[in-house]
Amino acid sequence: MTCTLFKVGKYYHYRFRLAGGERRQRTTHEINHRRAHAIMAKAYADAVLLAGGLQPIPTLAALIEQWEALRGPNASASHRRGIDVFKRRHLHGLGQLLISELDTDRVEKARSDHLATRKAATANHWLRKLKLLVRWAVKRKIIAALPWDVPMLPFQKTPRVTLPTRSTDDWFAALDKATTRSPSTAIAVRLMYGLGLRESEAATARWEWIDWERRTYTPGITKGKEAVPIPMPRWLLAHLGARRVPQGLIAPGKHGNPLPNGFARYSMQRANAATSLTGITPHRLRGTCATLLSEEGTPIQTLQAVMRHKDPKTTMAYLEVNMEIASRAQDRIEDKIHSGRKIGGARQTGPTDD
After folding, report:
1. How far apart are the C-alpha atoms of 179 and 190, rounded to whole Å?
2. Tell me: the pLDDT tens digits for 263-285?
3. Distance between CA atoms of 226 and 222, rounded to whole angstroms?
4. How are strands ordered across the β-sheet holding 4-8?
5. Burial class (CB in 10 A: 0-12, 13-18, 19+), 308
6. Are 146 and 135 in contact (CB under 8 A)?
């Protein structure tokens, strides 16, 4: 059935009849023919979908509002912040398009706009956010599949830092000095380092989630809703034991509320400066925890459980390469080859044929 667009006074109206005989007539409240036609086309498409028991296709901006209302309350704080930043800063002209109209050309153009002022790694993060939202629409059967085919951009991975074990004591001493007015911050940072907690998980950590007898901590509020007991190192148990109370936040902020977002940024920057380190952030403390456990022989499947990742490939991405381990292995191999022999008063530099 064709739709009809006509004027009543200064505004355009539309009229169409559905397959069951229902007649629809509405005003577009528009005096511009092109915009009025777009409103009519969407109204007709939505009516057809609703008549067939399907949901109308929203714009990307409307989809984000639906996600925030329906999915947001159950998502982590960092997840909600990421979607909020995407909505406010990074729609790049896609917001008013129906999600079914987000084809390959439009998404690639929007990504090019993003790349005009940002690095390739952030463009991939931008594409992940867009995929997350539209795949949510696919799960809700609003559309059948992603309407674009845009691969991630290849980029040179930059080395990421971990907190060196030889600098750990000095770094935490500097952190304690920087947090004399907010000792809870230093406690929360130790939770990130010792247990691999995310910043939001450290801010919401509670005493009643510690099993002192079994030496485990079970995060009660996590990004992926996992409840996995994590073994606690002895030094962390001793540090917390002196402050132990029956219940409540382990590291409370003002008035007993959880510490705010970004609570550790300033004090960690001061600790970095005091110890001549760069790049130590809450997320890199989580990576340090995973890397140190891996270097001590923890299997990847155990690490995955400790870090609470659904995919082991995510865990692998957290692990940094320590060339000192390879160097020590080379020394052990050399010892085996030479069996402690010395040639000409000095150890031979390579294997021989004898």
Report:
1. 13
2. 999 999 999 999 999 999 999 99
3. 6
4. 4-8, 11-17, 23-27
5. buried
6. yes
In a 3-state reduction of DSSP, which class is residue 148? coil
User: What is the C-alpha radius of gyration for the chain, rounded to an integer number of angstroms?
Assistant: 28
Contacts of 34 (CB under 8 A, 6+ apart): none
Q: What is the largest CA-CA distance in the chain?
A: 106
Three-state SS at 106: helix
Give which of 8, 56, 55, 4 is closest to 29, Cα–Cα.
8
DSSP 8-state symbol, 230: E
Using an 8 Å Cβ cutoff, are 183 and 277 in contact?
no
CB 65 within 8 A of CB 33: no
Of 93, 95, 92, whose CA–CA distance to 116 is shortest?
92
Q: Which residues pair with 206 in a beta bridge?
A: 249
For residue 291, which of 164, 127, 201 has the smallest C-alpha distance?
164
Distance CA 64, CA 299 (A): 39
For the chain, domain boundaries:
4-51, 60-139, 165-311, 322-354
Tokens of 243: 């402050």
95 with 58: CB under 8 angstroms? no
> Do residues 94 and 106 make contact, with C-beta atoms less than 8 angstroms apart?
yes
Query: Does the pLDDT of residue 211 top 90, yes or no?
Result: yes
Give backbone dihedrals phi and psi of 98, rounded to 5 degrees, phi first. -60, 145
Question: Pairing mode, if any, of strands 230-231 and 216-217?
Answer: antiparallel
For residue 48, count CB atoms less than 10 angstroms from its CB and return exposed for 0-12, middle for 13-18, buried for 19 or more: middle
Exposed/middle/buried for 340, CB within 10 Å: 0-12, 13-18, 19+? exposed
Instruction: State the pTM of this model.
Output: 0.66
Q: What is the pLDDT of residues 135-173, one digit of tens each?
A: 999 998 888 899 999 998 887 667 788 999 999 999 999
Assigned architecture for domain 165-311: Orthogonal Bundle (1.10)
**Torsion (CA) 186, 317, 119, 83 in degrees, nearest 10:** -70
Helix (H) / strand (E) containing 16 = strand 11-17
